[in-house]
Amino acid sequence: MKIISNIGKYFMMLWIVFSKPEKLSVFLKRTIDEIQMIGINSLPIVALMSTFMGAVISLQTASNMDSPWLPEYTIGYITRSSTILEFSPTIISLILAGKVGSNVSSEIGMMRVTEQIDALEIMGINSLTHLVLPKIVAAITFFPVLVIFSMILSLMGGWLVLVLTELSSTDTYIFGLRSFFKVSDITYALSKTVVFGFLIVSISSFYGYYTKGGALDVGRSSTQSVVMSSIAILIANLVMTQMILMK
Amino acid sequence: MIEVNNVNKYFGSHHVLQDVKATFYKGKVNLIIGASGSGKSVLAKSIVGLHEADTGEIFYDGRDFTKLNPYQRRDIRKEIGMLFQGSALFDSMTVEENVMFPLVMFSKKTKKEMQERVDFCLDRVNLPGKNKLYPAECSGGMQKRIGIARAISMNPKYLFCDEPNSGLDPQTSIIIDNLIREITYEFNTTTIVITHDMNSVIEVGDTINFIYKGKNWWQGDSKTILKTDNKEVIDFVFASEFMKEIKDKLKR
Asked: Is A119 on the interface with B (CB under 8 A)?
């Protein structure tokens, strides 16, 4: 029953979030700040994860290629497919749900318990639009950039490990990367990322904004926001895969 | 002037505010006092709309706040300055940015004019030159004064102070009380102060509303409160040994 009530409350929150900002210049400045906080600050973890995961995908594929009927370029092909279709958009989003989600939820939750949100409301500011909208705009514009960055580094990680271990040559790997390539795969991945970015930030903001109590409750909201946004990502991933790839 | 008529507020089955009637006058420091849990903070939050009153009317110079839509309410809120119990300063902003924030959001002043206004407000609360500090670098008393500077930056018609002395030493409390009184008289604001600090009650209470069990139990001022024969008020005011001594001296 509480879940249904929370879903209703979440959509009512979104209705208020998408109001006209009080002052456009302030909104733009806040959006740029959020791109820094949510996006640019996430680059190191995305780079680290992507490079190593790309390398592992390549190694696992190469080590499982026992059949002589499978051409060697399959390594590049499978690494590319795994990275573009699933690893970069979904796994990176799940990691960002942990990093960005907990950050957003605890920031807004702390503002709630220290009455900073009340202070905004008393000034006549729509606190939801002021606090949440720039975060959502930052996430849906910069998460795709992060995912493209992740795709590039993941494929490079795969290439690097294959060359260093001499399991495949550069030419064969690149041939594999280019084989059966469809631009629609990139569109699919980036569409998913936009939706995941929206879900992570809006769900985390929801849990932060409606925090009640003190520091302990801020921590609890933060945990809930990570769990719920991860679940939402997995469900959205399933639905979008069905809708886009199976049509 | 703010008038509250028959305001009721429930939290579940708990009747927190019961037919509260009160008038808060312009150019005066109007106190809401009462024991913890009596409903005084709920009353103040209902007046500013942070809690929704279940029934009753709240008039801001004749404008019924309870009947306004969110946009109209925001217009009234732009006329309100509020000092929160924990100051509620934006911790990611410097002192200057905190005080300038309402001006940036709502005024059409130039950057230079805003800077002058910020400097004036910080001067007014005796914090000149503290512009570049962050709230975390300021003491509790300084944070309260920054909160007052932010509250007055837009020249508010109505000033709310939620327990302005909580967590402060007696000397700093007196400074904050005097500041609130001076600002009220200087800018002719309708000031509402929620407190249970007896020094504030005696020093700055132009009007006093004593809230008891969710009701506006007693109304008066700083002079009449010491002479009242209302039992609940006497129990509250003369609870400490120090105040009991004062009571004895008054009797003599």
From this structure: yes
Structure-token pair, residue B31: 């106190």
**Is A126 at the interface with chain B, CB within 8 A?**
yes
Residue in A22, A26, A119 closest to B82 by CB: A119
* Dihedral of the alpha carbons of B49, A209, B156, B3, in degrees to the nearest 10: 10
Which token pair is A50?
A: 């992507």
pLDDT in tens, A60-102: 998 888 777 888 888 999 999 999 999 999 999 999 999 999 9
Interface check A26 vs B, CB under 8 A: yes
Residues of A in contact with B76 (CB under 8 A): 124
Tokens at residue A192, please? 């998913």
Using an 8 Å CB-CB cutoff, list chain B residues near A124: 74-78, 80, 106
Shared domain for B70 and B12, answered yes or no, is: yes
What ipTM was reported for this prediction?
A: 0.85
B147 and B178 belong to one structural domain: no
Domain that holds residue B93: 89-155
pTM of the model: 0.87
Please answer whether residues B131 and B118 qualify as being in contact, where contact means their C-beta atoms are separated by less than 8 angstroms: yes
Which ranges constitute the DSSP H helices of B107-162? 111-124, 140-152
- Pair of tokens at residue B101: 């924030």
Q: Total domain count for chain B?
A: 2
- Residue A148 exposed, middle or buried by CB count within 10 Å (0-12, 13-18, 19+): middle
Contact A123 B78 (CB under 8 A): yes
Q: What DSSP assignment string belongs to A162-186?
A: HHHHTSS-HHHHHHHHHTT--HHHH
Q: What is the tens place of the pLDDT at every residue in B14-68?
A: 999 999 999 999 999 999 998 888 888 899 999 998 899 999 999 999 999 999 9
CB–CB of A23 and B105 under 8 A?
yes
Please count the residues of chain A. 247
Alpha-carbon gap: B105 to the closest alpha carbon of chain A (Å):
6
- Tell whether B85 lies on the interface with A, counting CB pairs under 8 A: yes
Is the same domain home to B164 and B66? yes
